[in-house]
Model the fold of this input.
Amino acid sequence: MGWVDVLNLLVASLLLAGIYTTMSFGMTVIYGVMKIINLAHAGFMMLGAYFVFELFNRLGVHPILGALLAFPVFFLVGMAVHWLLVRWLPVSDQPTLPSLLLLFGLWLVLQNVGYAVWGNHDRSIYTAMTLATVRVGPLTLSVVQLVVFAVAVVSLVLLQLMLTRTWFGRAVRALTQNPFAGRLVGIDTARTARLSFGLGIAFAGLAGALLASLYSFDPDFGRPFLLRSFVIIVLGGLESFAGVALGALILALVETFSVQFVPAGYQMAISFSLLVVALLVLPGGVASLVERRGRPS
Done:
């Protein structure tokens, strides 16, 4: 394998890490504020894929524009789900069995709705840019991957600005760092939780919509990406927003380079193995290593 091949794999890993970061941020936001592991994340990613599919097939809306439209739509859906179901869960500083069962059940409901509406056939979205490539020096890059990466990066930049420049972002960071202190200083936890859940579902819908331009999908589409999201947030440190990007890059590098040595069908086993290693060796995630290095000895 020459240096050009290595460079191509590195660039492919970076492009993949962008979409992996987007699909994992929603779980991190919800867990950070509410201490809920959103097992329904996979179901909303699946709905995001079918959302752009229907817009493209019925109305001719470009899938990238459809992905942008998915964000506000799924934000409202997320707040509605929180108001109808999630707000009744007991408040806790650790994930609880009722929250896991509720959201796992919601995932199964969404999955079966998908089977009832769209069947079990694989669907794909083909546009003029699906097979288009562009050459940059010795590199051959997929146009659709570049566009998806650009949308993912812009959405993450806007999220970072929101987390640092708005009252809602400051409330999210405060509750993530210390929920008890956040309540003491007067943060409206119910309102912040509702908006955070909506934001998390919005990122799930956006990620599913973007992934629909890269992969074929069916009602079980979100399951392998849910596992990847678990790996990423564990690698990142569960509540670290910066750690999510590092975790996504690590997983993307491992998956991309492992294809050279291991059949692609074993990628899920690689993700499982990486999750086990992260839990045993780095239970605090990559963010804990960075914090440890930053402390004075």
